[in-house]
Every structure is written in structure tokens, then in C-alpha cells.
Write a structure and sequence with these properties.
12 strands, 33% helix, homohexamer, alpha/beta, eight-stranded mixed β-sheet, 8 helices, 223 residues
Chain lengths: 223, 223, 223, 223, 223, 223
């Protein structure tokens, strides 16, 4: 059963970069409020906003052997996505693995477990979204798989899906949907810009979105 | 039952601003160690220290309709306080709502749920204390209430109560107690200043507070 | 039973400072992947990296009396380690106690409970690793002990043991092992430097660590 | 500030007993989906279903002195409600206190903290809803208050309010609302009985509640 | 996007019943240690052991409308599987819905949220595995979907997959794998029977599984 | 470093059995309110009350190899105590291991991780106190140690220490203290018996323990 899938398809690079620019909240809305990883996935430092193709890792608890295997499968613009096979907070990943991943084009790591050497990772500019920061070391004793479908932090992710991550968390976009979601995200951004100006000028959402009638009809009372 | 209370009383502006200056820990002590919201309420960025009058929102889980309703009730210097009617981490609030709230004088948001667009909110200087950062979108389908008493993160809050928030968390001061609490807070600050100097000079709390006799009498042994 | 042990042995100062330089992850690995405190122990601000001798405090929940007692026992280069006798998140420690502890040579605080005045502590450069930030005040009513063995955040700590703390968390090194662990940590740092260069140049861990044969033998399939 | 309020008003005994019979879920619905304590409040044994008047206790963490004080204030049919002043799981209450409370007419305990001697309490038939089962002992060193308003497990409770508790958890009914809520609860029970029969016979909620048109209009597609 | 898929394929009834008999731990092992839902999924009463075909529900937080829709899609031997679109503990399901589901052949409910009326459900013999017991009522305001792929409590589940649930928790078996997994589960049960007898007679796993040589070779020391 | 200590000392059998009879809460109090394991350690079924000598296991996350090694070290009346080297909820232990452990005199298992086959374990009458019930299978790939000091669920435990466990949780008594703690526990039981009768007769703790003066002196007001 342990397997490494070598050739995975990836989404169009321009679409991926466009999704990075849109950011997690907009992308999540644009694709119908789906695809978010759980809110316990937090960045190790603020300010990063990236997107890339998922190279997935299914790894046993406390065993980071498959990370080495996965790094060989990276292409420029990829993001490593690690889902442990049972709940774990160990530090699978640190500055040496980040050095190696960066050398192979990796843009960041999404891991439903722990990470360590966060000071070094911050200085290297290698962003990580994780469940925990924990120095606990791991072994290299049991196989896992690379580039198989995983459930990571509550979201189903297939290799080659687009991962978008920023200060709001992490969102996955199905590879085949990348272009369409980008289009909707951009439409949303344009629409929001107009609303932002009106709201900044003091207009109320109640009026812009014409909510007063509906609220009254549903029974809201002002006293 | 869904209701919006339009005219609420607020505490004196100078008292509110004085409480902001004193900060959460001092205010909490000054009023007898009461009024703190649970420790899971964390700021989205460090350094903010605010106080304001609570405009409260009781909202269904995953439904931010009442935030739009509440914004119309804001006056200069208010703070939005949102308590979901059941545990929820969804992102009720983002940069558009913050734009609108700021345009109506709002100083910040305290929400026992999630918030999103935190990078934008940070850049806008709109502080939020929340239970989670989560991009999960919400609907506008079910009514709630505005300016009713709520329990938010373990604290009972009435509309018009003074909210104090900083890096230590969030504290509520009953509206009618604002001036008295401020007075005690200022006395406390003065008293602490003197102690701080003595402690910095190496004097021990054991001596300053005359604890040695009591400790010995209660049975503390030095070996 | 409440007792204060006045004279504790400490490790060699140079060894302690060397361990600080190595950092938590390296020290933890160097001593055989032991000694970590639980991952819920987080720094109140990023960037601090310290080591020092543990002055331990066993304190009742919500009672910080023993902190005053412990400060008298501090020597230059010590770190306060507080373990509550039952789970607690109250704010045992703030800027006044930090002022006092710093005046007595204390390098920081490790507390399996809450801390407050974190803005002041940050400005003072007094680092704290805690389970929570919480302004909740404490009483001075019940005795505890100082410089007795404690279990703090899952780790057994004896007075005089070396505490190492940085952005990755907190690790304890037995006093008697400090020099040996430092030696291994330094060897590890040297070895890692070489690997870091090879990895940065694009060499794979699979090759550097000669993993391919073992992976194949255990049944890993590439497809 | 520490105070014991001796004479509190209680709701009508028949209304209280009627609410016990209706149970938590029905009472919660009957009063408009309010009043529930958080879901971490669990019974120590299954099968109990009680209601009674709240005698409230605000107690410091790890200090059960006020329980003794509260027991003197009990009347036949009361329920003790303990809210610690900060998060705590210590075992404030065991078989001796239960013996004493039962001798004074107490029907049970609702505590947002820990309880111990649960085997004995089960054999005595003294029901407890708590956040934890934990043998951790407490001290008698710091005052609290009895029969003051508290927030217990997320719900605002005043002395004399009606507490309803069963396997579904705990709900509070404002004292003045007891009779009205009972009436609505009984109407709800009657209405549910009819629906239960139709549903048991295989009729669908979709038809009984006439939902199909609304669902279609909102855009639900069958494929 | 809200959709109800009416005709789903189900696994062979005999295979399903065989998997129920084998139980969660054996099925999980037989299919290669995959398919478990998170350990927070607990039964509302002990002793139930069931298997059935998943009728899946993707529902908004605090909104149980889609449960009514799903019940119409049930066939004899099915199990309802509800995954909220964001974390939620509300009580989506109680005795009326259970009455309706049972009338349509439902064997139980698996819900990554709350359930209520657990005393009634226990008496009816309708088993539920849930994240919480909570009486919190829900609304019927927003659409979701029925019989679409979901991630429930960390496991990817497709409609028609086989759900196995007992006191150990919940496991999912891909529909197409049901027969093969059953075969392996039965082989495992036979093999375990022999081992159980030898172990009961005092033979050691160290000898039965021939572990001594491997342990020694890896460096285990006896002192 | 991986080591098995073969000959450990155990406490006197009669003292151990006496401690079992006294139970967790009494033993914990008798030894000065120390020794409790965290409250997340819960029994898999109610009613068991045992004591025995600890045979300790330090095991990697998700790896139960050392359980087999430990079983060979069991003597009649022992209790297995497993502490994972990092947080883990996997099911290290099920009915086969219980069969083996029982054949070697084991009275139960205390594990700061998961357990499975709980229905079988219940029927066999093999009690377990654990952090989780979870069917997740484990591997046999990495060494650990047997009969070394561990920190299990927050308590420091040495091999041969006495473990007491019942419905209230788990407590450890230092081997050398067993007889003395038993004596104090028995004195406590005698003293409690007298108090229980007085309390059952309606006497108040306020009077039995003569608390009224102290309460008044500290400032408690009755209104």
C-alpha cells in the first residue's frame, strides 16, 4: 500500500498565482464557501500569502521519513501538504528539510501536526501553516505514501490541487476548478471594491444590500 | 423576540478613555477581580489598547446578518460585542464590515467566534479580540438581537457597559461603575509606581508587603 | 510539607550559555529526544532564546504567594519555573513581579498557567513561556513550595536543572548532564552545517542519508 | 464584597416539578432556545432528570469553603450551582458534602468545575452535572459569595432561577418565567405527541411541515 | 450547488452485516489501518454495534433542515452521516427525527456535531455516535446537500460507503471494498482466535511473534 | 538508551490492597493532595476500583511494541502504566494484549493515550484508564523502555510505585510511602465516618468545623 505517485498534474501557473493574490477568504467565498482547513491551522509568522500545487504526504504519527521522499517529487511552485495518519503534534519538519524543499522549488508547508526551528524558518522566509509548534523529534521507521489523496485538517486534498494560504488560514481549490474559481474571485474583488468605497463613506450595508424590508418581514423589532 | 434596542446609555467618555489607559489587568484588579472574558479571547495583532461602550449582538451560529443591523446603532467610541447563541468559530467579520464600522465610529470588535481578513484589519488598524481566526463564510438567514444583555466568553455584558481590551485580553466594567473603577485604577497605578521602584532597586516583595511573619506562622519551612 | 530549599546546585555557567545558543530543538535531539515541555507552552513574544537554572515553584491554583518567596532564592542566570498543583490559567505573574525577578538576576519565566501585563513584559524584555495569557488576578492565601521537584507541562524538573527556551518551546536538561548534552549539541550543529550546504545545493536527503535501498526493501513502490 | 444573600425568592414548586418532567430539550425550546449551559456540563451517571431552585455559589479556584456556607441556605427542592471565578477542574464536592446537602433538601449539584467520590454519589442517588470528574482536593482559605448572580458554564443564573437538568445537560429558566415556560413546554409536548405518531407511521417531516415548496423555491435540486 | 442525490449504490447486505459483526477495530485493521473517524466521536450509550450504508448530509452550522430531506432518501439498513460545514456542537437530532428515521429503516446516526433527547434515543434503541450531547436547538433556514461526498470527523465518506460503528468509535469502508475487507476481517478473526488461546495460556507475544531477536538487534538492553 | 529493567521492588501486598479499598480521593488526601493524574484519564467502564504496582512503559507515539516486552515483566498484582513520548491517542492496547496481561497477573492498564476493544475489555473485566477510546492501530518499529521513571498524564511515576484507580481517576503513591499513606487513609476514613453521620443528621459543616468565626473575621457578610 505505501506508494509514491511520481507524475501528478498541476493547475495552470497563472491561475495559481492569481489565487494567491486573491487570498484565502476571497477564494473560499468564490468557490461557494468550501475547501477550508480547520481553524487550528495557523501560520508560524504573519504576512505570508502563497498558493501552489499540493504534493501530499500521508505519514505515520511521529515519523517524518516520507518528507524526504516527497521532496524529490517537488516542482517549482509546489506546496508540501502533510496529513498524519492519526492525531499528532510532533515536529516533523525543521530548517534542514526547509532548506532542501526550497532548493527544489517549494513555496511552503501545510502540516496537520507540528513544526520546529520556527525562528530559522521565519528568517529563511519559508512559511508554514501547522497545528502546533513543537520541537519533538520524529523517527524514520515506517512507510507512508506520497501524492495520494489525503484528508488534512478536515479538508479532502488530492495531489495537484491548489493550496492557498495566508494569515486567515488555508484553503484548497480542486485542480480542475482553479481557473473558474480565480475568475469568480476576481469578480468578487471588483464588486467588493465598489462596496468598500460606499461603506467607507458611511453608507450602511442595510441600505446597500436592501435588507430593511426582509428584516421587518421576518419580525425584527426596533424599540 | 428578535429586537434592536436603539437608545442605550453610555458611560462618560473621559472615564472610558481613562479605563483604556489603565488597561485590562489594572481595571480587573481595581473592580475586585471580576469582569474578565475567558482567556481564549486573543487580539489579532499585538499592541492595541482600547476602551469603548458595548453595542451587543446576539447572533445565531454562522449568521452575521445582525452585524449589519448593529452597525447602524454605533456611535463614536463604541465597541461591537458579538456573542453567538451556540459555540461557533466562523468568520462573521472581515474588512468590509470593519470599513463600515469604522465609518460609524467603532473602535474595535470583541467576538466569541471567528474573524477573517486579519491582514487587512491589521493594516486598517481595526483591532479585534476573537476566539479564532477563520475564513469560514456566514449566511444572512436568521434573526438575532442587538443591544440586549449577552454572555460573551463567560462574562455577562449589557449594552452600554464599558469594554476594555489590550494584549492581556478583554474586561467589562458595568456602565454605572465606570467612574468609580477608574478612580480605583488610578490609585492602584500610583501605588504600583512606588512599588515598582523599590522592587527594581532589589527590595523584596516579602519585605515590602511584610509577608515573612505570616508565612512562618502558616508553617513555611526553609531548609 | 510546604518548604523552601535555599541552597541548590546549579550547572556550569558556560555550559548553560552554550545550551542557550544551541536552542531547544538541537538540545532536545542531542539528549536523545527527551525533556520537552508540552507544546501548549508558548512564548509571549517571538525571538527570545535563553537558558538558565531552574528555581522551581509548586503553587496552588490561583495563588501566587510563593512567587514572592521564590524571588528571594534567585541567583544571576536563573529561570523561574512554576507548576500549579492543579490545572490553572490564572495570571500569576505580571510586570511588578518581573521587575523584582529581573532585579535578582532572573532571565525569564516558564509557567504552566497564565501570565499578564504582556505588553509591559515585552517592553522590559522579560521573556515568558506560558500556557495562557490571562489577566485573572490571584490571591496570597495558601502555601506551596520552592525548589522542590515538580512536573511542569508534562516534564519532570528538579531545582537546578537547566531550562532552555526559545520560539520552539521549552526543554529541560538534567543538571548533571549539561556539559555532555552541550558537547553533543555542538557536534550536531557541526554535522548539520555540512548537510545544510548539500541540501541547499539540491542534493536530496534520500541520497545523503542513503535511504533508497531501505525504502525499497520495506516495500515502497513508485508509480 | 463577599456576601451571602439569605432570603431569595423561589418559583412555584408545581411549576418547577412540571419543568423537571418536561426535560431540558423541551424547556429550552419552549423558552425560545435560550438558557442552556455549555455542552461540557455532563451528568456523572445517566438517567437523572431534576429541576429545582438555584442556590448559587461564586467560589475561588480550588477553594470549596463557600459550599459549606451555601448548604445552610438550602431549602427543600433547591439545586446548588457553583461557578468558579476562573477556569478550574478541581473536585470541590464529594460524598460528605452531598450527605450534608441532601440532609438539607438539595436535589443535585451543577458545577462548572470538578466533582469526586462519583461512585458514592451514584449509590446515594445524588446527581451532579460537572465539567470534570477529578479527585483534586481543595482548600478553605478565600471567601466567595452565595446567592449572587453568576455566569455558570456560559449561562447567566440568578439565585432562585429554575435549573432543569437531565441526560441532555442543564438549562436555566428565569424565576419569573417558570409558569409561562411550563405552559409552552406542555403545549409543545402535546404537539410533539401527534407528530411522533405520524412520523412513526412513516409520514415524512417534509410533508407534515410542508417543506417541499420552500425547498424548491430556495433552489434545492434533486438529481 | 445544494443538491439531493436520489439513487445511490449500496454494498451487498450480507457484506455489511458481516462487517458489523467484525466490529470497528477489526475492520480498521483488515483494510490497512485506514478509515477511522476521529476519537471524539462517541456513542450515546454503550453496547451498540452496527453497520449500514451511508446516506450523507452536508449541513450548515445550527441548521437541521437537510435531515428531513435526507430521511426521505433512506432505505432499510442505512445510516445517516451528518457533517456540518463548519465546526458545530448544536443538537441537530432528537427523538422525533429518530422516530422518523427508524420508520424508514435507519440503523443509526453518525454526526460530527451534537445530539439531544439521548434518554429517549437510548430507550428507543436508536444508536448515535456524536461529537457532543447538547440540547441546543437548530433552525431550518439554509440549504445543504444530501448524498454528496463529505469529510466527517476527519474521514472522507461517499454516499453508499459502509459505516461500521461500535463502542470503539466509527470506521468507513469504501463501498467497492466491502466484500474484500470483510474477507480479510474474517481471516483476522480466525487468526486472532488461535493467538488468544495461546496468550490466555500464558505464552508471550514476544515468543508467538518471534520478536526477541529483532529487539536485541535493534539494541534493546535488559538490566 | 532503550532498556528493560527486570527486577523492580514492589510495595507490600497488604498495603496495596488497603489502598485499593480506600480509593483515589481518600488516598490523594491522605498523602497531602499530591499524586493525581490529569482528569482526562477516565475509566472505560464504571465501578472498577484497583491498586497495584506500576510496571511502566515509555513508548513512541503509535508504536505498541514495548507493551509486549512489558508483559513479560509483570507479576501478580501489577498494573501496566504507559506514557507515550509525545501526545498520542492511538489504540495501543486491545483484547489480545489484555488476555496476555491477565494471564500474567495484571490488574489493569493506565495509559495516557488510546485503548480499543473496550466492549471486550469490559466483558473480560479488565479495567483501563485512558485519555481516549480509539481503534487506531499501532506499529512495532521503534524501541522504548520498560520499568524506567515516566511522567504519565502529569504525574511522575517510578516502576514499583503503587497505582490506585477508580471512578474518580488515577493516583500514584510512592512505593516507600505506601504503608504510611494507608495508615493516614484509614484514619481519614474513620474520621469521615463520624462526620458523615452528623452531616446526615442535618448538622452543618459550618458548625462541625467551627467556621463561623473565621468567616466573619475575614469579612463575609450576610444580608
Amino acid at each position: 500500500m505505501p506508494v509514491v505517485v511520481r507524475n501528478i498534474e498541476r493547475a495552470d501557473r497563472a491561475a495559481i498565482d492569481g489565487l494567491a493574490h486573491a487570498g484565502v477568504a476571497t477564494v473560499h467565498e468564490a468557490q461557494g464557501r468550501i475547501g477550508l482547513l480547520t481553524h487550528h491551522m495557523r501560520p508560524i509568522y504573519p504576512g505570508a500569502r502563497i498558493a501552489g500545487s499540493a504534493v501530499t504526504i500521508s505519514a505515520p504519527p511521529g515519523d517524518n521519513w516520507m518528507v524526504h521522499v516527497a521532496i524529490e517529487q517537488l516542482k517549482e511552485g509546489d506546496i508540501l501538504v502533510l496529513a498524519p495518519t492519526s492525531p499528532c503534534v510532533d515536529g516533523y519538519f525543521g530548517d534542514l528539510l526547509a532548506t532542501s524543499a526550497m532548493a527544489h522549488g517549494c513555496r511552503g508547508l501545510v502540516i496537520d501536526a507540528g513544526v520546529r526551528d520556527v525562528r530559522d524558518l521565519t528568517q529563511m522566509g519559508f512559511p508554514v501553516w501547522s497545528k502546533a509548534v513543537f520541537a519533538q523529534g520524529t523517527v524514520k521507521a515506517t512507510l507512508g505514501s506520497v501524492n495520494v489523496p489525503v484528508v488534512c485538517a478536515g479538508a479532502a486534498i488530492e495531489p495537484g490541487d491548489v493550496i492557498v494560504a495566508d494569515d486567515d488560514g488555508v484553503c484548497v481549490v480542486k485542480r480542475a476548478d482553479a481557473a473558474a474559481v480565480l475568475r469568480k474571485a476576481q469578480e468578487r474583488e471588483v464588486a467588493e471594491e465598489g462596496k468598500r468605497k460606499r461603506l467607507a463613506a458611511g453608507e450602511l450595508g442595510l441600505d446597500i444590500y436592501d435588507m430593511r424590508g426582509k428584516l421587518e418581514q421576518m419580525g425584527l423589532k426596533y424599540v
